[in-house]
Write a structure and sequence with these properties.
Blueprint lengths: L2 H4 L10 E7 L4 E3 L3 E10 L5 E6 L6 E4 L12 E3 L4 E9 L5 E5 L2 E3 L8 E3 L6 E6 L14 H4 L4 E6 L3 E4 L17 H18 L20 E2 L12 E2 L28 H5 L10 H13 L7 H5 L29 E2 L19 H5 L20 H9 L9 E5 L11 E11 L35 E7 L2 E6 L9 E6 L17
Parallel strand pairs: 2-11, 14-15
Antiparallel strand pairs: 1-3, 3-7, 4-6, 4-9, 5-7, 8-11, 9-10, 12-13, 16-21, 17-18, 17-21, 18-19, 19-20
C-alpha cells in the first residue's frame, strides 16, 4: 500500500493523529534565511506510540529537540494516549532558489509507516525564495528568523502559567540598527512588525507566560469566569465569535478562522488550539523580547510600575510623591508626561511637561486619573482633550488601562496593557485594513461605541491581547481612552536598551 493511501487526512471525523501549525513558516523569504516552523502533534487515540516519527525530512530541514520540555524531543519520539508535543523545525535556505515546499508527515512507526498523518495543504511549508540581499537596517526590521531559532523558555515551571521566558538575543547583525539617528524609528518599526507576526499566528488569550505552553487538561478553565483579575494560570478565552458577518458567528471559534481545514471549531476546541496563548502583559513582554531582546515582568501592575505586594504603591502616575513613587525596577522604560516627553526621574514628576493635561487640571502625566486618584472618564471635555493629544504618543509605547466603572474596580487598579501603533483604520499603505480589526466584547451599542473597522475609518489602532488573543483593535473612548492609567515609553530609554533583561518571578 502506498504512503498516500495510508495517510490519515485531517479531514476525517476522528483522525488518529493531528498536526496543526503553532508558528507558520513565512510564504516569502530571502535566500540564506533559517526559517523556523512549529507544529503541534496530537495523539488522538487511547494507545501509546513509542516510535512516532517524522518520516520525510528533507536534507535542509532539521528538528529542534531541546530547549523546551514540550518539544518532540527525538525522532522517533513517544506520544502517550491523548498527549501532544511540539515539532519545532529549522529550514535552511542557503542552497534554495525559486521555491520550497514541504508537507511534514508523522507516522506511528517509522519502519512500518502504516498509521500516518499530514497537515492540510494550507498548513504546509510553501515558500518563495527571493535572492539574498545585504542585511541593511531598512529591509530587515521585520526579520525575526534568528530570534525564532533560539530557546524561548526556562525550565522554571509554574503550573498553569507555564515556563518562565528567558531573554532572546537580538540578531548581532542588527545591533547597529538600534543606534544612530534612525535607531529609534527602526526599533519602533520592529516592535510593530513583531506584534503583527504574533497577531498572524492566531493564538488565544490565555493566562500563560509564553505562547508555546499548552494548558494541561486538569487546569483548563475560562478566563472570564476565572474573574477579572485573571489570577488563575491556565485559563483561556472560551468566548464565542462576535464577528456578525462571519459564517461561524456565535460559535466558540476564533473570530478570524475561515471555518475550513484546520481553522474550524473542532480544531479550536477539540484539538486544543485554544489552549495556546498569552494575556495582555505577557504579550507585550513577548513582543519586546522577540523584537529587541528586552525582557520585563509579565505581571500587569508591575509592568506599569507598581511595586508587587505593596498596597501603598497601588497608585496612578499623578498620585506619586517623593516617598511613594512608581519606580519598580522591572517596569520597562519611563512614564510619559502630558506633553509627550518622558519623566526624567529625580523627583521631577514631569514638572513643566504636563501639557494640556496639566492645563486642564488632571496632572503632569499622560493619564486620565488626577492627583486625588479620581478618574476623569466621565468628563467629556477631558476625554476630548486626551483624544486630541494622542498624536504625542510614539509607536511601541505601552498604554496601561485602569479599572473604572467599566470593570467595577478602583480607578488606580491596572488591569490591562496595549501597544500603541500610531496607525489608523483605513486602506492606505500605513493603515490597518478594516477587515483586520478584531471584536471588542466590551465595546457594544449599549456602551455607546462600535468596534467594527468599517465604522471607524481614520480612528487610531492599538494591538493588545484580550477576548480571543493578540489582535488589532480600535482605540475606542470607552474602556481604552477613558481609562488610561498611564503610558510607558521603552524605546529610547537610557537603561532599557536592546538586550536589557529584568525577569523577576511573576
Amino acid at each position: 500500500m502506498s504512503i498516500a493511501k495510508q495517510i490519515q487526512h485531517l479531514k476525517m471525523a476522528s483522525p488518529l493523529f493531528v498536526m496543526t501549525p503553532l508558528v507558520s513558516a513565512p510564504s516569502v523569504v530571502r535566500q540564506g534565511t533559517t526559517v523556523t516552523a512549529i507544529y503541534q502533534v496530537i495523539n488522538n487515540t487511547n494507545t501509546s506510540f513509542p516510535k512516532m516519527a517524522v518520516v520525510n525530512f528533507p536534507a535542509n530541514v532539521t528538528q529542534v529537540t531541546s530547549g523546551n520540555v514540550t518539544y518532540c524531543n527525538s525522532n522517533p519520539f513517544t506520544l502517550a494516549p491523548s498527549a501532544s508535543c511540539l515539532l519545532k523545525v529549522q529550514i535552511a535556505t542557503n542552497n534554495l532558489t525559486g521555491s520550497f515546499q514541504w508537507n511534514p508527515q508523522v507516522c506511528s512507526d517509522s519502519t512500518k509507516k502504516f498509521y500516518c498523518a499530514e497537515v492540510y495543504p494550507s498548513d504546509q511549508v510553501a515558500m518563495t525564495i527571493l535572492p539574498a540581499v545585504s542585511e541593511t537596517c531598512s529591509n530587515n526590521y521585520a526579520d525575526i528568523s534568528y530570534e525564532l531559532s533560539q530557546q524561548w523558555d526556562s525550565s522554571n515551571l509554574t503550573p498553569g502559567w507555564g515556563y518562565s521566558p528567558i531573554s532572546i538575543a537580538l540578531n548581532p547583525n542588527f545591533l547597529t540598527c538600534t543606534t544612530g539617528s534612525d535607531g529609534t524609528t527602526w526599533q519602533q518599526k520592529r516592535v510593530l512588525a513583531v506584534a503583527d507576526f504574533w497577531v498572524k499566528q492566531k493564538i488565544n488569550y490565555c493566562h500563560h507566560y509564553s505562547s508555546d505552553y499548552l494548558t494541561p487538561p486538569a487546569l483548563r478553565c475560562d478566563s472570564a469566569s476565572d474573574g477579572a483579575s485573571g489570577a488563575n494560570g491556565g485559563c483561556c478565552s472560551l468566548r464565542p465569535n462576535l464577528q456578525t458577518s462571519s459564517s461561524t458567528y456565535g460559535q466558540i471559534i476564533r473570530w478570524n478562522y475561515n471555518g475550513q481545514n484546520s481553522q474550524t471549531a473542532t480544531y479550536w476546541q477539540q484539538f486544543t488550539r485554544l489552549w495556546y496563548g498569552v494575556d495582555c502583559t505577557n504579550f507585550t513582554r513577548l513582543v519586546y523580547n522577540f523584537a529587541i531582546g528586552i525582557l520585563t515582568t509579565g505581571k500587569t501592575s508591575a509592568q506599569a510600575g507598581q511595586t508587587p505586594n505593596d498596597p501603598t504603591n497601588a497608585i496612578s502616575p499623578n498620585q506619586q510623591t517623593t516617598f511613594n513613587q512608581l519606580n519598580y525596577s522591572c517596569a520597562p522604560g519611563a512614564l510619559v508626561c502630558g506633553d509627550g516627553t518622558v519623566d526624567q526621574g529625580g523627583n521631577t514628576f514631569c514638572a513643566g511637561h504636563g501639557g494640556a493635561f496639566a492645563t486642564n487640571g488632571v496632572g503632569n502625566y499622560f493619564s486620565m486619573i488626577d492627583s486625588s486618584g479620581n478618574s476623569q472618564s466621565s468628563n467629556p471635555s477631558i476625554v476630548s482633550m486626551a483624544k486630541s493629544q494622542l498624536g504625542l504618543l510614539q509607536p511601541g509605547d505601552l498604554i496601561f488601562i485602569a479599572g473604572s466603572l467599566d470593570t467595577g474596580q478602583p480607578s488606580d487598579t491596572v488591569t490591562h496593557a496595549v501597544i500603541w501603533t500610531g496607525q489608523a483604520v483605513g486602506y492606505g499603505p500605513n493603515d490597518i485594513n478594516p477587515n483586520l480589526i478584531a471584536p471588542d466584547e466590551l465595546c457594544t451599542p449599549a456602551t455607546h461605541c462600535n468596534w467594527q473597522g468599517n465604522a471607524n475609518i481614520g480612528q487610531p489602532v492599538i494591538i493588545d491581547s484580550h477576548y480571543q488573543g493578540p489582535d488589532y483593535r480600535v482605540f475606542t473612548d470607552y474602556f481604552y481612552l477613558e481609562d488610561v492609567w498611564g503610558v510607558r515609553r521603552v524605546i529610547g530609554s537610557s537603561t532599557w536598551v536592546p538586550g536589557y533583561s529584568c525577569n523577576p518571578p511573576d
